[in-house]
Amino acid sequence: MVKGGRGAAGVVAVAVAVACAFGVVAYAARRDLAELRVRQADLTAVLAAPDAETVREPATPGGTGTLVVSRARGRMVFTSSGLPELPRSRRYELWLMGPDGARPAGLLERTPGGITAPVLAAPGRADDRIALTIEPATGSPRPTTTPILLAALPST
């Protein structure tokens, strides 16, 4: 009888562990969904802003970058299409540029079809350009290559 009790206790322990694991997964999924909703709202606010201006600029190795800026909202959205695929050790990195130099604005994530996921960034008042470079996969604190795309930020 002691043996059966241990077996039942083991089954209960496994069931509790599984339930805890599902709880953690469900909590993480809810948090991720909430973050996604906030991001979607931020993207929509920039794209729909009355002062939104769109700039399209070709990249030197091929492809095009598209930038939508709302100075009133203090945000910009960047995406691209047709950029050549890079080796796993490299990534495209977006930079905001102004009198104080370049600062990272985000790493581009490729989606199926060669389009990159939108990057949402907050240009400073003095930022007047964006640049796109090819960097190590983890990104860089400063550009390490010549920009393949350079575009002026609208000053609206």
TrEMBL record:
Membrane spanning residue stretches: 6-29
Signal peptide: none
Domain Anti-sigma K factor RskA C-terminal: 12-148
Keyword annotations: Membrane, Transmembrane, Transmembrane helix
Record-linked PANTHER family: ANTI-SIGMA-K FACTOR RSKA
Name this polypeptide is given: Anti-sigma factor
Species name: Nonomuraea spiralis
